[in-house]
């Protein structure tokens, strides 16, 4: 086995790899995302024309691992536990991405899904030692750990996006009546709302815990949910005295390219 100083634990699907006797080689060389750019060449002109779609492709990050089988497990039990840990969670019958990060770096997380079951090569001279790889298919961004959970709206009325990429936060409210969320001066109006609901930054859908949609009670500029640009962003929320807002929070999802 290699020097353990070069291996660290990861947190994935809310479990630590060390719970399974797994350490991951660290640091490692990440695979960087490929931009979606088309090129075209015209004879008699030097240099190609670029069509930049402003997006990036997913990556596959492959990690070398070592395993020290927990004393209470057989190899068969280890394999069952490994599958339970790595298989993606499901929501409404659909598999979902999960955040994962090294316990050595508590600043940024990957966002990905395991598509292929890892294979462990067990040491011929030991019943409890092995090596292998884990490949995780990831979103093209790192996400700051302080931005992947819901938090109160900024009391100062503004927040700074210190990372270089625009984000589309998720929002969470408990409110009765009509109110307006202002983000960078743009009004996002919610009419005659009752109870708890969320706003998806990805789709712009407004929904409750039972996935009932309330999009027809909301009015967004350009029909798009709020975004936070690099630098200073203002966030305010207002309601008439007859309306109540019990909870207003957001998940900013600060991000930067891998």
Shape: globular
Work out the radius of gyration.
23 Å
Q: Helices and strands: which structural class?
A: mainly beta
User: Which architecture of the largest domain would the CATH scheme give at its second level?
Assistant: Beta Barrel
* Average pLDDT reading: 93
Q: Low-confidence parts lasting 5 or more residues at pLDDT below 50? A: none
Strand percentage lies at over 45%
Distance between the termini: 30 Å
> How many structural domains can be distinguished in the coordinates?
2
Helix content: under 10%
**SS summary, helix count:** 1
Counted beta strands: 23
Main sheet? 11 strands, antiparallel
Top CATH class of the largest domain? Mainly Beta
- Order of H and E elements: EEEEEEEHEEEEEEEEEEEEEEEE
At CATH level 3, the topology of the largest domain is Elongation Factor Tu (Ef-tu), domain 3
């Amino acid at each position: 086995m290699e020097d353990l100083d070069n291996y660290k634990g990861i947190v994935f699907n809310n479990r630590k790899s060390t719970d399974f006797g797994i350490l991951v080689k660290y640091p490692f060389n990440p695979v960087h995302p490929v931009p979606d750019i088309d090129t075209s060449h015209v004879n008699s002109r030097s240099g190609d024309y670029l069509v930049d779609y402003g997006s990036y492709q997913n990556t596959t990050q492959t990690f070398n691992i070592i395993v020290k089988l927990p004393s209470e497990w057989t190899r068969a039990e280890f394999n069952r536990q490994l599958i339970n840990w790595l298989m993606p969670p499901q929501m409404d019958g659909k598999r979902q991405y999960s955040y994962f990060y090294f316990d050595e770096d508590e600043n940024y997380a990957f966002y990905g899904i395991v598509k292929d079951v890892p294979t462990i090569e067990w040491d011929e001279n030991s019943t409890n030692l092995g090596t292998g790889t884990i490949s995780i298919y990831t979103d093209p961004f790192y996400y700051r750990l302080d931005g992947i959970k819901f938090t109160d709206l900024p009391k100062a009325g503004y927040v700074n996006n210190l990372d270089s990429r625009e984000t589309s936060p998720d929002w969470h409210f408990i409110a009765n009546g009509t109110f307006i969320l202002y983000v960078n001066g743009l009004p996002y109006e919610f009419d005659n709302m009752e109870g708890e609901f969320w706003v998806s930054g990805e789709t712009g859908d407004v929904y409750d815990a039972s996935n009932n949609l309330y999009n027809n009670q909301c009015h967004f500029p350009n029909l798009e949910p709020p975004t936070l640009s690099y630098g200073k962003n203002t966030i305010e929320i207002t309601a008439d005295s007859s309306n109540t807002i019990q909870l207003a929070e957001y998940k900013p999802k600060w991000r930067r390219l891998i």
